[in-house]
Amino acid sequence: MKIVIIGYGKMGKEIEEVSKLRNHEIVLKIDRDNLQDFESEEFKNSDIAIEFTNPKNAYQNFLKCFDKKIPVVSGTTGWFDKLENVKNIVKNKNLSFFYASNFSLGVNLFYKLNKEFAKLMNKHNQYEASILEKHHKHKLDAPSGTAINLLNDLIKVSSKKKNEIKVKSLREGEIFGIHKIIYTSLLDEIKISHELKSRKALATGAIIAAEFLFNKKGVFTMEDILNN
Questions:
Q1: Is 124 designated active site?
Q2: Pairwise CA distance, residues 100 & 223, whole Å
């Protein structure tokens, strides 16, 4: 595939490396200093765009891709208040869009574990549930998209209400990502956790998502890959 990378930070560089290992071609890298390249021939003729930027710019980046009918894979979080708008545009214009708050296979398996464990813990009301997430100091949104997904999934299958589950966010150092689901009673504590050890896990997942999205129409998530 001919890939455009939108957002050439640490994740963008990892995506570039993994793309080459999987025999894809990076035809363009767009960052804050060359936004005019959204109008370039390389952009218009690309097969897919992989977008990792920030909550402020993500939605406008999607629109620029949609305008040229370029499929988009996005790993940016913090823009989900616009999700219904994106879904409507993709449906009405017969476009292609893949989004995930976390492209790590391990995290997406952790989502499933969280739901199953919540069903079990639903029978034991003496435990209070909470979520702890830690990320590097450069991450802008808090709580993380992954933590929000964990919280929403937990609520769907348990008797607990949203305001009964505390979510704590920490931003320090260069932590790639740690998420913990904690159940605490007066007598003991149970924790299940996932720790990301390399951005390469996210980059690999993003490229797999791009390969999955190629020649498909609609809106997709990691759940579609896991169920494929």
A1: no
A2: 9
